[in-house]
Amino acid sequence: MEHHLALSARGVQMEYRDRQSGKRLLALENVDLDVPDGAFVSLLGPSGCGKSTFLKIVNGLLRQTSGEIKLHRVAKGREDAMVFQDASLFPWYTVTDNVAYGLVCAGVSRKAARERVQPFIDLVGLGGFGDKYPYQLSGGMQQRANLARALAVDAAILLMDEPFASLDAQTRELMQAELLRIWNAARKTVVFVTHQIDEAVFLSDRVVVMAARPGRVIADITIDLPRPRELSVKRTPLFQDYGERIWGLLAGRQEETASQGRAS
Amino acid sequence: MTGGPALVARPAAGAPARLRGALGERVFYGLIGFVGVLLIWEATAQLGLYRKSLLSTPSAIWQAAATDIANGELWPHVSLSLTEFAIGFVLSLVLGVPLGLLIGWFRRVDYLFSGLLAGLNAMPHVALIPLIILVAGIGMESKVIVVFLWTFFAVVVTTFNGVQTTARKHLEITRSFGGSQWLAFRTVVLPSTLPFIISGVRIGAGRALVGVVSAEFLAANRGLGFYISLYGTFLDTARVMLGIVIFGILGVVIGELVRVVERRFEVWRPDLHH
């Protein structure tokens, strides 16, 4: 079977001009990234490493200063769909209308969209909550709706921007396992942004480690843990080895930036 | 008593806790306050603590109301004022809401109008009344114009503010999923601006009532404001007070109507669900 690339980035740079000093800031420096079809890849790094910026560039919310982004063209619908950090559901819509909104953006009528999203509401475990308003949902349930909205547009690649960052520890673990179950069912390519090492290792086929100032890729680690994965895998030595290795990479960089900070 | 530390009990209620602010309770205490003030007013006047002709008394006002309603004198004044209010108010909504939306959504429309509007809004509107009466006469037209102007600015400014405070993260959703600007306007900007529009309506309604009275004070031959100022010149304080009370009632009724509309549109707001 031929392996297509779902996403290919070459030499992506993002520059900002600081409003006060007028200095140029490099948010992303020369980022290369290939994501094969069906893979689960995490972008991991401290805040300020440009991981979310990269995701927004892929999504088209931002435009890179230079470099090339290519997405595998799909026959119909969108190439990519975003799962946002704070669920960003519309408070004036019910769960069903929120989940249907991606389709409405694609030109599907409100009524048809409502019918089509029903299976996705069930898939993320929100069956029976379709008529609720966001304020009636817990944080975890809001993120499920957020995920369903992205799944419903049937994009080839899911872009997930720290979707579990604001959840409590237990809900987060639960949602990680849920995400793997859904990923398995929906067979999507996923690019997942996080600053949590164990989250990245648990979920991913590959963890792309990034560093800040300027934002860049410093390592690309393949995670050879068998699938399907249960939460118990987090207590295995192999899992912990991956965690320590990545932690070493990030900690080393942080010391380096800290000493740079002292020098300048 | 035996030894050991003394314990303080927190007794159980024995029944489920009741939510505060039940409607019956609100009405009950509201009425007590209202009736209490009336009683004190009546009593102090009857006791001769001040001259009755200065502040009148609830019973005298009641009598004046009964007489003027029975002989049909009151209603034409009230209905004229209400008509002036309604026409001016609806006009200001029909023109003010779209203009506020346009100014909020299109930068160039903002540049075109916002300076002008800020200037007109900052001006003391009462100062315009003599001019409006000169131009439009002392009939209904001048009052409608006054009501319109008073309300219009409140509606435009609050609508504009509503559009401007639309959450960026919500607008980002539409963009992220490839929705058009027009879709973003309809599905994001409008619903998140609605509470602002309604508060504009509320502020506008209050101002519009003041506008009606002010204009009728200055020049009119009918209307509730005219009724008040006419009987003021006769030193008939009961009828002056009656006019004021009717304005008060109208204000409350209009405010409640706005609340009904508000609830209808905002089922998604948590505080209105219980």
Could you please describe the fold and organization of this structure?
The complex is a heterodimer of chains A (264) and B (274). Chain A is an alpha/beta fold and 264 residues long. Helix content of chain A is 38%, strand content 25%. In chain A, the strands form two sheets. A six-stranded mixed sheet of chain A has the order 5-6-7-3-8-9, sandwiched between helices. In chain A, strands 2-1-4 form a three-stranded antiparallel sheet, with helices on one face. The N and C termini of chain A lie far apart (52 Å). Chain B has 274 residues and is an all-alpha fold. Helix content of chain B is 76%, strand content 0%. In chain B, helix 4 (74-105) packs across helix 10, helix 8 (168-176) runs antiparallel to helix 9 and helix 10 packs antiparallel against helix 11 (237-265). Chain A binds chain B through residues 59-61, 78, 81-82, 84, 86, 88, 90-93, 101-102, 104-106, 133-136, 153, and chain B through 169-170, 172-179, 183, 187-188, 191-192, 267-270.
Secondary-structure blueprint of this entry?
The complex is a heterodimer of chains A (264) and B (274).
Chain A: E1 5-17, E2 24-36, E3 40-44, H1 51-59, E4 66-71, E5 80-83, H2 95-105, H3 110-116, H4 118-123, H5 139-152, E6 157-161, H6 169-186, E7 189-194, H7 197-203, E8 206-211, E9 216-222, H8 237-263
Parallel strand pairs in A: 3-7, 3-8, 5-6, 6-7
Antiparallel strand pairs in A: 1-2, 1-4, 8-9
Chain B: H1 23-46, H2 52-55, H3 58-70, H4 74-105, H5 107-122, H6 129-136, H7 140-164, H8 168-176, H9 181-218, H10 224-233, H11 237-265
Helix pairs in contact in B: 3-11, 4-5, 4-7, 4-9, 4-10, 6-7, 7-9, 8-9, 9-10, 9-11, 10-11
